[in-house]
Amino acid sequence: MAAAQGRLSDGAGGMDDAKGTEEEARHKGSHHGSGGNGGSGGSGGSTAPPAFAAAVEALRAARLRPQIEVEATRAPQRLAPHAYALEAAVVDGDEDLADGRLVLLHDPAGHDAWHGTFRLVTLVRAELEPEMAADPLLPDVCWSWLTGALQARGLTYGEPSGTVTRASSHYFGGLSARPSASQIEIRASWTPREGLGGVPDTAAHLASWCDLLAQVAGLPPAAPGDASVVTLPQRRGPQSR
To answer: How many whole angstroms separate alpha carbon 183 and alpha carbon 22?
Structure first.
């Protein structure tokens, strides 16, 4: 799986110090593996608060569409007292169509900017055709995919914050034979509503995040009822894993 490396920031919390996330992402674990302090995925073990442990267990038990491979990875250590991270790739055979990271943060004392004790932080990215990347409406459309994925599953959330970035690479000299490449990145965070026992429905949030991944990758909707969803029609071909 291609790790979704990069700087994860939580604009709503003012916590932008995620240096080392790129290095931590290389230390992968199993999606259903141990999540103890310092282990794969972050602080999801027996020493974690009960609400956080329950939220992490729901992430581990979630069932997702088969085209999406998910596994635990080392969580950033400086964003919150407790954190658990997943990385995912939308897979077609041996090729990755899109990838991303989802980090669950928890501060039992609460966080003023979050307006809650939990926060979800994400990075999603995919390759695009240059013509699609040049569309001036693309950032607004991609942001609407994120909010639409949450709303489609009836999820309540607060304090959404994020960026949509387009990047293009052009090759010269010894690399001039390579075609130009364009990429879209969605970086976002939001506060999930806390339910019974102060535990948010993290499994549903994970499912909606996977809906976003699939949409960015250009996969068809998972259910007939989702036929109105607009997918990305002009993404680049699959990327080698």
So the answer is: 18
